[in-house]
């Protein structure tokens, strides 16, 4: 194991009063994008079921567990990035102070030992909360429980233990975890799995994957230095651009193809036009204007727009007779 990097010049350990803020930053609680799966899953249910006590309790427990599982994943990711030097490369001493503060290990407000303890505590809490959600849920199909366990294990092992993101699986995880965060709560609340639910989960999961691809493009140097084999590291700039373009068009193809196949209503592509237009904007910003970080911010906003559109479609379906897929 490589030795831990030194703190940036001028950075001193934080006083005890700053620990709570440091843990909040470690957990990345301001990054809400995976949590947006909850309203998507909720609105896939029949209207009469959405506000039933069992539904609300299941979603509250699952949502709290999701928060803990993600907190564990990003905490371990920060520890690994601190130790191998990739965070020092990507959030170097010349980075703006606001940005450096998002990495409490680099900023000196937490120690690796504190972050590791936090990560394990969050992982255990997340597992218990998800078990509680399953215990009170109306349905507990085998596939739902297996998928929940897979999401838990892979999230904790993302940059820790098996380090799946260091073994070529980062992009798969970013997509698959998003899919799981829609399908697991939906499966706990629904007796069957519809093609339209799977479609919405796939479109949701594509969001974090796509803005993750732009992040990886920006972080090529640091990731390559520590042997993190992202697509951006493994391919040429042209190959990476082609991969991002292909993944973007794949999401659009799912929207159009689902309507043609009868999985979604015929008007679904029209409802998703704002998302499609923003995807084109992202590609233009990234590869014509050469502003990867702006493309990433645009992709994050587009993911949130996509969530709003998916929720609007689910709300509209019962009001439009004959259009339910």
Automatic annotation (TrEMBL):
<dbReference type="Pfam" id="PF01040">
    <property type="entry name" value="UbiA"/>
</dbReference>
<dbReference type="InterPro" id="IPR044878">
    <property type="entry name" value="UbiA_sf"/>
</dbReference>
<dbReference type="InterPro" id="IPR026046">
    <property type="entry name" value="UBIAD1"/>
</dbReference>
<feature type="transmembrane region" description="Helical">
    <location>
        <begin position="172"/>
        <end position="189"/>
    </location>
</feature>
<feature type="transmembrane region" description="Helical">
    <location>
        <begin position="118"/>
        <end position="136"/>
    </location>
</feature>
<keyword id="KW-0472">Membrane</keyword>
<keyword id="KW-0812">Transmembrane</keyword>
<feature type="transmembrane region" description="Helical">
    <location>
        <begin position="195"/>
        <end position="215"/>
    </location>
</feature>
<keyword id="KW-0474">Menaquinone biosynthesis</keyword>
<protein>
    <submittedName>
        <fullName>UbiA family prenyltransferase</fullName>
    </submittedName>
</protein>
<comment type="pathway">
    <text>Quinol/quinone metabolism; menaquinone biosynthesis.</text>
</comment>
<keyword id="KW-0808">Transferase</keyword>
<feature type="transmembrane region" description="Helical">
    <location>
        <begin position="31"/>
        <end position="48"/>
    </location>
</feature>
<feature type="transmembrane region" description="Helical">
    <location>
        <begin position="142"/>
        <end position="160"/>
    </location>
</feature>
<dbReference type="InterPro" id="IPR000537">
    <property type="entry name" value="UbiA_prenyltransferase"/>
</dbReference>
<feature type="transmembrane region" description="Helical">
    <location>
        <begin position="305"/>
        <end position="323"/>
    </location>
</feature>
<feature type="transmembrane region" description="Helical">
    <location>
        <begin position="241"/>
        <end position="260"/>
    </location>
</feature>
<keyword id="KW-1133">Transmembrane helix</keyword>
<feature type="transmembrane region" description="Helical">
    <location>
        <begin position="54"/>
        <end position="76"/>
    </location>
</feature>
């Amino acid at each position: 194991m490589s030795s831990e990097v030194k703190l940036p010049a001028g950075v001193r350990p934080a006083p005890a009063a700053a620990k709570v803020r440091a843990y909040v930053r470690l957990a990345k609680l301001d990054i809400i994008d995976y949590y947006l799966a909850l309203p998507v899953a909720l609105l896939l249910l029949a209207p009469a079921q959405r506000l039933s006590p069992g539904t609300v309790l299941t979603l509250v427990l699952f949502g709290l567990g999701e928060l803990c599982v993600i907190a564990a994943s990003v905490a371990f990711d920060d520890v690994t990035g601190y130790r191998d030097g990739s965070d020092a490369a990507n959030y170097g001493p010349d980075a703006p102070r606001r940005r450096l503060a998002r990495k409490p290990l680099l900023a000196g407000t937490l120690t690796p030992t504190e972050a590791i303890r936090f990560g394990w505590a969050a992982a255990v809490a997340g597992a218990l909360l998800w078990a509680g959600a399953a215990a009170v849920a109306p349905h507990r199909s085998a596939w739902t429980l297996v998928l929940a366990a897979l999401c838990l294990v892979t999230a904790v092992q993302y940059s820790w233990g098996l380090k799946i993101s260091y073994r070529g699986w980062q992009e798969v995880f970013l997509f698959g975890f998003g899919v799981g965060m829609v399908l697991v709560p939906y499966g706990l609340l629904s007796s069957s799995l519809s093609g339209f639910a799977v479609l919405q989960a796939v479109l949701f999961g594509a969001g974090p994957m796509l803005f993750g691809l732009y992040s990886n493009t920006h972080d090529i140097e640091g990731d390559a230095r520590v042997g993190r084999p992202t697509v951006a590291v493994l391919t040429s700039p042209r190959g990476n651009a082609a991969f991002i373009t292909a993944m973007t068009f794949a999401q659009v193809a799912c929207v159009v193809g689902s309507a043609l196949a009868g999985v979604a209503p015929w008007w679904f592509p029209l409802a998703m036009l704002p998302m499609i237009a923003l995807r084109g904007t992202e590609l233009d910003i990234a590869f014509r204007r050469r502003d990867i970080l702006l493309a990433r911010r645009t992709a994050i906003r587009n993911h949130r727009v996509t969530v709003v559109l998916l929720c609007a479609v689910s709300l509209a379906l019962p009001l439009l007779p004959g259009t339910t897929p």
